[in-house]
Batch of 4 targets.
Target 1
Amino acid sequence: MSDYRAPVKDMRFVMDELAGFKALSQMPAYEEATPDVADAILDEAARFTSEVLAPLNRVGDKQGCRMTDNGVTTPPGWKEAYKAFCEAGWNGIVLPAEFGGQGLPDTLGVAVKEMVCSANLSFSLGPLLTTGAVEALLTCASDTLKATYLEKMITGEWTGTMNLTEPQAGSDLALIRSRAEPQADGSYKVFGQKIFITYGDHDMTDNIVHLVLARLPDAPAGVKGISMFLVPKFLVNADGSLGARNDAYCVSIEHKLGIHGSPTCVMAYGDKGGAVGYLLGEANRLVPALNLKRKDVLFTWAGAPLRGALACLGVRLFQRTADIVAAALVVLRGDRSALGADQGGGWPCWRHRAGGLGAAAVAVRSQARRSQRSRCRAHHRRPGPRHRLLYPRNRRQGWLCRPRHCAHRAILRRGSRSRLGA
């Protein structure tokens, strides 16, 4: 059984002292997000994740998802946990209230999301992708599609996915072959196969809303010819009830290390005449909504390597909070002054401020190295060319140490080979 305990006090420190959460309650859109409300939400999220989600980790890893004649089944306890998750309102905590969400600020939503992901990553991927799909629909769906799908997705009655990768097209979306043929009624028939589709099929909800990338018959070559389509597992009748089964099926599931409880599916569209889909946004344009979906995925994907880099340096997550957040500010907005003159004038990461995830990791590692200097200051000496290249000189504090008996040497050696390194 997991003993996950959310670092609520550290989260509140970051929110109050660094992110200025109290000022948000002065804004008309977030006037209900008072500090007292935030305390109650974080405490309840910590209880829910530690008592409900964390204990399912072992069950999900040992038993995993299974492929049956009726589709994919999730591990024991998954359906009940998801129902409790949605009934408590966690699924729509930051989504618009007009469609059934709570409309709370992302500053609070990120803290809750961190708890859910840390307590049970396999479980968290389902709500994570649903939130991304909701944001995509809010951005580019028609009013009819919004009225049909948004409320049920925000409340958790239906889930959402994103379908990008194909057997021949991994990160290079220009190689996508899935196609969409326009129909007389304004819909489309979608054909193709997608792989590595997280929560592409499961037994937790009655319907699943797939966002699928495909090409129209007259689409230009490359990424400029990609369109996005909404393809539901079950078609929806005019009165909102579920209709016929759509031609979108899971044909097999993958087994990813560490997230066996998350159904990673191979999806086939159009094997029985074509899957009915609806265009999102403009035709032949990779809509900005795709970035909204990938943003939530990046939150989870980036968390693991960044925590790994911190662990390699001997720094726990949320420890040295001020330094870590200051480093993130350098990367996100180029604010060198955030580091302060007493912390080296911002020299570690100003060159990387336009860099993305790698730059963020460099910034965090640079800040963490400062916290380690006091442990090995006696071992400082002039380094060789390789060390000089990796770690610029700080004239006031000298060079980082390299002796074999110093624990810091092993940190530098592992860090220099890391894929997150400079």
Target 2
Amino acid sequence: MSEEKIEIQVPVWPDFFPKDCPPEDAEDATGELFRLVNSKDKGDLEKCFQGHFILFPKRVVKGKECQACGVSVSRTLGDCKAARELAPSLRKKIILHGVLEHPVGKIAHTPLDSGNPHYTWWIPLETSPWENFKEVKE
């Protein structure tokens, strides 16, 4: 009988992530995810998956730095569409859909004041999960 080695991949997080980010209660990110993005950025999917910490560093709310390092996602198409309708700033965004067959980073439920189901997804270095995402045709 041969011994099979199981290699455990420990995610490497960007240097700008605060200590203890992602939070300890975040789960492995797998399954279906939906993301709202600017239609003008859909040709640069990597940019579509950068968090507010990189895109809008002056707008990061104190105490929310870790959440700003991740990206906002929804678990269902319906939740993503509902989020788009709730916020005027999101109404012109398109929806990207992807399926993570294997864990890619961490995800946590981070509800917003609106009550809409909201998740934050922290993407580790040396991964390109956006390659699994396509625009949802509506």
Target 3
Amino acid sequence: MFKFLKEKIKGLLKKKEKEIEVEKVEEKVEEKEKKIEEKEKKKEKSLFSFSFGKIKIDEKQFYNFFDEFKIILWQSNVACEVVDFLEEKLKQELIGKEINKKEFEGFFKAKVKRSYRKFICRPY
């Protein structure tokens, strides 16, 4: 009689242990999925990808940034033709470039000034 009860209890314990193991595995998978989602969100939130003190600008990041910059230019009453010209020139000069993080602001300002001068000095 006790032998039968012991076997039933052992069987129930084994089932519970398997369920607990499955739950642990599921929790680990969920944690890894959350970490992956957080990393993807961080990548989407960041305007530029950073690595070892350098910034490398890709096309998607450029357009995300330039859309905001374009609105600022329009609010400053810059002509659409000038904005389009700046977009083309900056796209050519910035996409794929690696720039020091500390020097990015100055680098960007210099590129905008240079592109604007090219627009002003171009023949009609």
Target 4
Amino acid sequence: MNRIVRAALLFAAVSVQGAAADPEYVEFDVPGASNTWVYGLNSKGDTVGDYLAGGGGSFIRTKKGVFTVITPSGAHPHLVNRKRQTSGVFSDSNGAYGFIGAADGTWTSFEAPGAQGFHPYTAPTAITDTGAIAGYFGNNGGLAAQGFIRRPLGKFVTFAVDELHNFGTFATAMTEDGLVYGYYLDADSVLHGFSRDLQGAISPIDLREAGRGQLQGTKIAAANASQTIAGTYVDAHGQQHAFLRRSGGKTITIGLPTGSMDITVTGLNGTNAVVGFYQDAQTNAHSFLRTPDGQLLSVDEPHGTHWGTFPYGINDKGVIAGSYLDGSMNSHGFIRKP
């Protein structure tokens, strides 16, 4: 059942400051569900996620509010493209696998070549409108993560950054024209961002602001067609920050409150708006939106609580989708329209 809420947002001093004028929030749950989690949004406003009702399951929701249950159960989508093709992870007792799903809710699992072994995993992280999928794979038997691209017809390309001297390559974003971005962990446990071009050449991306010590460095989470990227970095003092880096190399640190922790960047659209969430110094969970003109706004859902609002995408129209937790710790889906 949908509820449409129009509200000006008020925020505590420890939260991101600012409010958009009368944004429209559409709250929803899968019919009969006690909990609904939204993990993906496409350019049209369709969403995907999981729900809890009976044994639980997953869904596609159109922008008009029509639900399709993903069958058979067991697939957990967090990606959806303009054709309503979905992707995510399917798990069983032997490991975790990727899948590609159709608009009617049916899906087929896949495994990246080389992922076989002890508890293998294949983890899709991006899908294009043509159905190409990027992500990473490995196993728990000693195979460090490597990146993959799965072409629309099912052909795989796998890659790793400095394979002999790193602890994992994680592809996390892909543009419509096939550029892949992500991060890797080197032999000294320092994080580095990277880009991979259409010819397979890989270039490191290290923010000047990032530290060079153990578990410091740059993590790219999202990218757009203009080759702007967004993500997080850890500085030389061990403090985590969110960032936006334009194609020319200019880096903007997103000014979240001092002491923010567990910062997660979840979306970047074609106008360079960035969304994500974080914990404040009191461990309260908050969401944020950095607008193209540099405003930093909270997008905490009006019916949410300090337990958190979690946006998981923003499209070029400025529509944001995600989930929020109510006072009983139950999760509900939401769409925020500017």
